[in-house]
Amino acid sequence: MVISPIHYIFVPLATAFLIPLLQKLYKDAARVVPGLVLFYNLVISVILFRRVMQHGTVTEIIAGWRPPFGINLIMTPFSATLASLVSFMAFAVWLYGFRFKRVLKGGEVMYYEILQLMMIAGALGIILTGDLFNLFVFIEITGITAISLVAFYRDRHGAEAGFKYMLLGSLASSFLLLGILLIYTQTGTLNMAQIAQKMPAVDSGVKVIALIFILIALGIEAEMFPLNSWAPDAYSQAPSPTSATFASVLAVAALYALIRVGYTLFDARMISGFLIVMGFLTMLIAEMAAFSQTDLKRMLAYSSIGQMGLAMVAFGIGNETAIFGALFLMINHAVIKALLFMSGSYFIYNLQTKKMDALNGIHKRLPYVSFLFSLGVLAIIGFPPFSGFWSKLYILYGAANKNMLLLIIGILSITLIEMTYYLRVIGRIYFAKEKSEPASHKPSVNALVAMTALALVIIILGIYPDLISGYLHQAGRFLLDKQAYIQTVLSMR
Amino acid sequence: MTTFILFLVVMGIILIAAALYAVIQKDLLYAVLATGVVSLVLSVFFYLLQAPDVAITEAAIGIALTTIIFIITIRNTTRDEDIYSEDLINRFKNKKDA
Amino acid sequence: MKEFQEIFLRYHALLQAAVYGSAVLLILIGLYAVLMKKHLVKIVIGLSIIESGVNLLFVAVGYISNHTAPIFSPGYEHAADKMVDPVPQALVLTAIVIGFATTALALSLVIRLYRHHKTANIEQLKSLRW
Amino acid sequence: MLKKIFVWFLLAVLGIALYASFGRAPFGENRVGPTDNPATVSAFYLKNSAEKLQTANSVTAIVVNFRGFDTLGEVTVLFLAATGLASILYRKEDEDEEGEHLPVRINLPASSIVRTGAKILFPLILLLGIYIFVHGHLTPGGGFQGGSVIATGFLLMFITYRRFGTNHKVMVWLESLSGLAFVLTGLYGLIKYGSFLQNTPDVGHLNDLVSGGLIPLIYIFIGIKVSTELTNVLDTLMNIKPKKR
């Protein structure tokens, strides 16, 4: 059987359906099998990524009907990059969470693993699909799994965070349906490429209304201000591997959907101003909120929202340099924020509290985890030798190319806020007086392997960004080339 | 033909009335039953609009299943919209006893 | 059948108002409940009313006057030109089932919330704040 | 007060926007176009569900074949909702929810008329459900409709008989295997014809019970899957211990 993008979807699906049975045969099946599947995803990512980068876009027809009649999967260099990123991060998170103590109670582990696996499959579906309604279905898959995972601990905060997400998520799906229907009435099709082709002929009033509906819906998913009030609660109440997945998988997929719809279906020029303004507001407000947090996970969550805002700004700027920076930022953010959530959750696990006051002097008890955490912090605020530096530099460079001086000043001053609160945490970890308690929970080996791997990625990308920059340039070019997308899809046989 | 038009208009009015009732009614059990009526009328609507498949789905899922899960939820929370917490239930009970 | 078309066109504005209007009103009523009501169950009722409105809008958009259901039952084998648009109907099937799934999930969260907080008023759920 | 004004303003704007924008697609207008030489997706579906797939119900053809991938996703959504529901309402034996313990059911038992009626109706409802999804490609209805009808049958039994419970082992097997069978049928298309979920060219004749190639088979799997998932959801919800009054 030839490797093709459909493997990303049906292998996790079949596994998820099978896990309840396998669980009966072998007690640890629910924990082991998803890892195998995610590893398989990683392998096909490598194969497909190479194929896409060498021979151009890989497409796949489903049910044997060529587009626009059937649903198609499409892997442009842009989506191939993100799909590989998602597969890699998913595997790293699985490795990290393999022995995660708090989720190991009783039969719940099966629910947890199924939901976690399907969240990743849903995110991959969002990235790969070429059909608007199919996008909706995959967004629902990720939404339902994410809600269940947020409420997974079944405490009062979890249920509340889940309900908040549920409320906004349901509104988002209704608005998305309305937007899809509006587009369908005007163009008579659901295939994204054909919609893009027919869009110029659509009455501009209807187009704007459809765009607003879809932007509201995808804005909720992509944590855009002011629709992101679910995000900090969800990030902070979910189990820690899930928080890491939210930051590194779900956010990437949601932003991809926003960009794909904005750039391909509509015109990039139509949304660029909107994206810059909303992205900047998202960033500003999130970083200010992060500054005033006392809870470690909430601080990380707000910082995540801020980074998504920066990525939106970069996509709004819309020239090749900025898009390169945005892609680099998405990769960096996924890796670094996952590392921060992973190492941060070991602090929380040891201290039994999420409050940051308790972090004082913890480096003596957990030296290695503290080291990894500070590495992540330095990388995310963009210290020169680390990878975060390059992405920010390129985004600023892109803004400079378009003479957006105010924006540059704004981003830089927000970076200052970011630096302050992150360095405050580092200060607590290393220089504050410790309370003398022995370390109770050393990190397990698999978690250490996962975290070290992520840290290595950060360092290598920082020292030698050329390793991926060629690919990212190619991906960015393809995103801007709308006609190539339309032609590739509609010439499929 | 005129019956078709009449039907659609009357159905639309019933639909809106039932939905309004569902939102206004303070007794949640009746509100839920009103949403059941919304589903019922909706499935007739679908049938009139030449969508029998959708009509059957709406009939089975909208009328029966959704209504029952709402009723189960009401049984596990409160039935009256204004008496929304356990405190209020207890206070209300005490008043009745006294 | 020509008659049908004539009457349909004569009353078109009324019909459009009756069908699109009630769908849009359902969406608005549901949204009102979601935004203004305090009881969690009422909010979920609002969500399900919004879903109903969206579903009705889907089917209404696919309707073509004087055409039959998209089923090639015996006697209608060659009537493809006289059938309503089947695509919105297929989409609505998906949307209804997904709507039920989300409603069930929402209600289970409501039950959980009531167990923990002893209240179903959304304004009293304030353990999580910005 | 400010909130109220804002909400009303929002509703007014949304209502006008919706009505105006959907008004651009007049009610009852033919946007499908001729089916002989299809220019739109719908016309293509209408033409080919009769010609190439020999499936009488073209909605079924779309749901199962043309857009079968959506349906796979939809079945997954249902599966995940059942899983998420079980996870949210999950309760270990020793788990005490903030001191709440209520073993006694307060409901009165159903009357004997209801019980006898339910007993007679239950097999009929099951039969109806099975009929609906077996004939999904010929008449209105199909896997989702039949599945939900079967679930209403179980609902009747849950309500009438307090002690009625489903056999969990059978449910788990049916649920997993029917879902897997759906995926495997898709895989069969991928291996044999080169495209996931692709139908066999051997589709029979319009309006025969065995027509449409793999479509009825897949719809039966969907029916089993949907009915078990919905029954699981109901079972989980019905088994919540009622709170103290």
List keywords for this structure.
heterotetramer; A: 493 residues; mainly alpha; two-stranded antiparallel ribbon; 19 helices; 76% helix; D: 245 residues; 8 helices; 0% strand; globular
Task: Reconstruct the topology from this structure.
The complex is a heterotetramer of chains A (493), B (98), C (130) and D (245).
Chain A: H1 7-25, H2 29-55, E1 58-61, E2 72-75, H3 77-97, H4 108-128, H5 132-150, H6 156-187, H7 192-198, H8 204-221, H9 230-237, H10 240-265, H11 268-291, H12 296-317, H13 320-351, H14 367-380, H15 387-401, H16 405-431, H17 445-463, H18 466-480, H19 482-490
Antiparallel strand pairs in A: 1-2
Helix pairs in contact in A: 1-2, 1-4, 2-3, 2-4, 3-4, 3-10, 3-13, 3-17, 3-18, 4-5, 4-10, 5-6, 5-10, 6-8, 6-9, 7-19, 8-10, 9-10, 9-12, 10-12, 10-13, 11-12, 11-16, 12-13, 13-14, 13-15, 13-17, 13-18, 14-16, 14-17, 15-17
Chain C: H1 2-10, H2 12-36, H3 40-62, H4 86-117
Chain D: H1 2-23, H2 41-51, H3 58-66, H4 68-88, H5 112-134, H6 143-160, H7 168-193, H8 215-238
Helix pairs in contact in D: 2-3, 3-4, 4-8, 5-6, 6-8, 7-8
Question: Would you give an account of this structure?
Answer:
The complex is a heterotetramer of chains A (493), B (98), C (130) and D (245). Chain A is mostly helical and 493 residues long. Chain A has one domain (7-490). Helix content of chain A is 76%, strand content 2%. Chain A contains 19 helices and 2 strands. Chain A has helices spanning 7-25, 29-55, 77-97, 108-128, 132-150, 156-187, 192-198, 204-221, 230-237, 240-265, 268-291, 296-317, 320-351, 367-380, 387-401, 405-431, 445-463, 466-480, 482-490; strands at residues 58-61, 72-75. Chain A is globular, with a radius of gyration of 21 Å. In chain B, 83% of the residues lie in helices and 0% in strands. The longest helix of chain B has 25 residues, at 52-76. The relative contact order of chain B is 0.11. Chain C is an all-alpha fold and 130 residues long. Chain C contains 4 helices and no strands. In chain C, helix 3 runs antiparallel to helix 4. The termini of chain C are far apart. The model of chain C has no long low-confidence stretch (mean pLDDT 87). Chain D is mainly α and 245 residues long. Chain D has one domain. In chain D, helix 3 packs across helix 4 and helix 7 runs antiparallel to helix 8. The two termini of chain D are 36 Å apart. Classes of the chains: A mainly alpha (493), B mainly alpha (98), C mainly alpha (130), D mainly alpha (245). At the A-D interface, helix 1, helix 4, helix 5, helix 6 and helix 8 of A face helix 1, helix 2, helix 4 and helix 7 of D.
